[in-house]
Design a protein that fits this description.
Layout (H helix, E strand, L loop, with lengths): L8 E5 L3 H6 L10 H9 L3 E8 L7 E10 L3 E11 L8 H15 L5 E2 L7 H9 L23
Parallel strand pairs: 4-5
Antiparallel strand pairs: 1-2, 2-3, 3-4
């Protein structure tokens, strides 16, 4: 972030349910207070918020989850990145990714990764500008387990 011009924005960690909920317009679905509380209480779950002068609430967010495997150690999974349309192309996304990578280093993670659609050029450009490299295409396989969702 230090190489960025002064765009009048800064990044901070979400520490309260109110801060998590304040980023509501940046999420894919409506946030719930009980889920926000559980997120904050879960060790290794991180939410960084970008704020801008004059903006009403956060203008960007990145969430990350530390994952430890017996033969790989701990790495940071970049779960989601979003920047409000009016604040894109100002380095906010890159700054958020770099801040999460810095947090991962501080917490002893050996790496950081994210899944991204191969045709999502804005996301790919953001991740590359923040020092990421592509390992090639992959397929995401998912299971619907019938638990509560944002739609319920």
């Amino acid at each position: 972030m230090s190489d960025e011009p002064d765009w009048g924005w800064w990044i901070g960690a979400a520490r309260t349910v109110a801060e998590v909920l304040s980023a509501g317009p940046l999420y894919d679905e409506p946030a719930r207070a009980d889920w926000a509380e559980r997120f904050l209480a879960s060790s290794g779950h991180h939410l960084l918020l970008a704020y801008a002068e004059g903006a009403d609430g956060p203008v960007g967010m990145v969430s990350g989850v530390e994952m430890t495997h017996p033969d790989k150690g701990t790495e940071m999974f970049l779960y989601e990145l979003a920047v409000a349309p009016a604040h894109r192309r100002r380095g906010v996304g890159r700054g958020l990714v770099e801040a999460l990578a810095g947090l991962a280093r501080e917490r002893g993670c050996h790496g950081m990764w994210v899944g991204v659609d191969t045709d999502n050029e804005p996301a790919l450009a953001t991740y590359r500008s923040a020092g990421g490299s592509s390992e090639g295409p992959c397929t995401v396989v998912s299971w619907s387990l019938g638990g509560p969702s944002a739609a319920s």
